[in-house]
Amino acid sequence: MTNHSAFATYPSLRDRVVIVTGGAAGIGEAIVEAGVRQNARVAFIDFQDSAAKQLMERLGASGAGRPFYYHCDLTDISALQKTVQEILNTFQTVDVLVNNAGNDARHSIAEVTPAYWDQCVAINLKHQFFMAQAVIPVMRKSRRGSIINMSSIAWAIPSTNAAVYVTAKAAIVGMSRTLAHEVGVDNIRVNCIMPGAILTERQQRLWFTEAYKSEILASQALKRMILPEEVARLVLFLAADDSSAITSQSYVIDGGWV
Ligand SMILES: NC(=O)c1ccc[n+]([C@@H]2O[C@H](COP(=O)([O-])OP(=O)(O)OC[C@H]3O[C@@H](n4cnc5c(N)ncnc54)[C@H](O)[C@@H]3O)[C@@H](O)[C@H]2O)c1
Predict the structure, then answer these.
(1) Ligand 1 site: residues with CB under 6 angstroms?
(2) Structural domains of the chain in order of their starting residue, each with its CATH number
(3) Residues of 14-25 as b/e, b for ≥16 C-beta within 10 angstroms?
(4) 165 in active site
(5) Which of the residues 4, 40, 160, 162 has the least number of beta carbons within 10 Å of its own beta carbon?
(6) pTM
């Protein structure tokens, strides 16, 4: 159990409107929880309704606060745009966007069809751009904003069997840098996070065999698995005014692997 009171409080996040994509599970879930614990108003987008409901109930019961759930398949860009509009109708503004949703399904080079390529890019890259495009006008109006895009160390280490995912994750870094330069004039910051192997429920279920865990620990400087809440704490820092001069950067959080 995490002792939340042992970690930083960011006064600037109180009442800020934070959108988290893919917030129902994994790293996104930890970001949603971290956000409500800072008394931010957190809207999360996902398509796993039962996981989203469980998260809201868990956070409500723990007294942490209640996030707001929006169902949307982020690969459907017109649905994404409608969802952002709904969020804006409710909250009038957006201060922080965490582009977190993704899917690291494995694929060999031979398996990739043009349709698979498009789908993999749609879930790992395309929505990040269109989410940013949808919130930038309102951030420009309030002359502040922090956009945090989830990349991965996957493109910086010798990854295999995920060429399209890895391509998307590398593209996110370039996209973030150009967006940062386009919106910096309006005091909007854009940064990336590059997690290593993070101990989420899905990773444990699908990929983290004992052999792979041993490989991870041999590659890391820290000899323990890195937790979703540790990534969430980096997100909080980049979301808060404490990082007000930081933009166009990528932060590795991998226990010292890269
Ligand atoms: N876990 C890791 O080890 C790791 C490492 C590096 C990078 N990342 C990145 O961190 C982010 C979160 O990963 P995670 O491990 O927490 O994944 P996860 O699968 O545990 O959670 C992803 C969430 O996104 C949602 N989602 C997926 N596709 C969606 C869609 N089309 N529409 C709406 N919601 C959708 C899922 O329902 C889920 O709630 C991803 O961008 C991933 O690439 C994760």
Answers:
(1) 22, 24-28, 46-48, 73-75, 100-104, 123, 150, 152, 195, 197-198, 200, 202-203
(2) 14-250 (3.40.50.720)
(3) eebbbbbbbbbb
(4) yes
(5) 160
(6) 0.98
